[in-house]
Design goal:
The protein is an alpha/beta fold. The protein has eleven helices and 13 strands. The protein has one domain: Aldolase class I (TIM Barrel).
């Protein structure tokens, strides 16, 4: 059934189709009809970062930036939902067009630029959702905030989302905010994470609950950079790492829109994301769990991530191309011994 729906949606401009898809999910959820699109899952609970996930297949950040569709997305069968990226202040993001489907390549290019309604609006949506799912919240800095003041934005966002999040992701790897990826290296990384850990400790005492901090990294790091980053994550006792974000590189692609600027996701990212995943797992030596994302378009792709050492797996582009049925298929694939 989803293949028919997808043909209709793919006739529309991508960002418009995105909005219509989320609205339709909400309607189907209210009518109790989402089961027509989702498959049956094998029970596969897993505990990671002290959190018990009903299954290890989650939704990556970017689909629901403002937390407006948590309940309907959770009803699709995800073991956890990650919303955002959210910034302290609302921002419109980059000019349109900024989202492109590379259908022949089973890929997407986006240069959204952290478009969102701001952290206050997101927290309000989360509170109004009365959700019953594991919720991650992905935070970033505003485009107008100088890089030397980035930690202020991250700490402010963390303070606001902490009471309503099960874990918080620090997005320092989007290719669509100028200079952001510089925060993945050296003193900039150390100073940012030290301040965030200090804030986490204060918020832990204030709210009486511990919310894990997760760092999302780029797939474009070289091997030595991955090794140094892994050492920093262990040293500063970061709770988890997401490997990986979208790539600025352009492997062999056939779609004419491949020339568009932005982050590439989907099938062409799979090999590169798996390389980073494997290295990160080996360097962390089990001291920090890894959440894998990038190029999961089939159950076999999800299982490969687990075989490489991922504790959890996230979907985004695969969800767009294959629909809700992919979630149950991936859960069933990774549950097999």
């Amino acid at each position: 059934m989803y293949s028919i729906v997808r043909k209709l949606l793919f006739m529309l401009e991508p960002e418009r189709a995105h909005a219509i898809s989320l609205f339709s999910l909400d309607v189907l959820h209210k009518l109790g009809l989402l089961g027509l699109f989702a498959g049956k899952q094998t029970a596969c609970p897993v505990t990671v970062m002290g959190i018990e996930f009903p299954n290890p297949i989650g939704l990556a950040a970017g689909l629901d930036k403002n937390g407006e569709h948590i309940n309907s997305l959770a009803a699709c069968g995800f073991g956890f939902i990650e919303i955002g990226t959210v910034t302290p202040k609302p921002q419109p993001g980059n000019p349109r067009p900024r989202l492109f489907r590379l259908v022949k390549d089973e890929a997407i290019i986006n240069r959204m630029g952290f478009n969102n309604d701001g952290v206050d609006a997101l927290v309000k949506c989360v509170k109004n959702s009365a959700h019953n799912c594991i919720l991650g919240i992905n935070i970033g800095k505003n485009k107008t905030t100088p890089l030397e003041n980035a930690a202020d934005d991250y700490c402010l966002a963390l303070e606001q989302v902490y009471p309503v999040a099960d874990y918080v992701t620090i997005n320092i790897s989007s290719p669509n905010t100028p200079g952001l990826r510089e925060l993945q290296y050296g003193d900039e990384l150390d100073q940012l994470l030290i301040k965030l850990k200090q804030s986490q400790q204060k918020l832990h005492r204030l709210h009486g609950k511990y919310v894990p901090l997760v760092v999302k990294i780029a797939p474009d790091l070289v091997d030595d950079e991955i090794k140094l980053l892994a050492a920093t994550l262990v040293k500063l006792e970061i709770d988890g790492v997401i490997a990986t974000n979208t790539t600025s590189d352009r492997p062999e692609l056939t779609d004419p829109q491949a020339i568009e600027a932005g982050g590439l996701s989907g099938k062409p990212l799979n090999k590169k994301a798996n390389h980073v995943l494997g290295l990160m797992v080996s360097y962390l030596q089990g001291k920090v769990p890894v959440i894998a994302v990038g190029g999961v378009l089939s159950p076999a792709d999800a299982r490969k991530k687990v075989e490489l050492g991922a504790s959890l797996v996230q979907l985004y582009t695969g969800f767009i191309y294959a629909g809700p049925a992919l979630i149950a298929e991936c859960v069933n694939a990774v549950s097999k011994k």
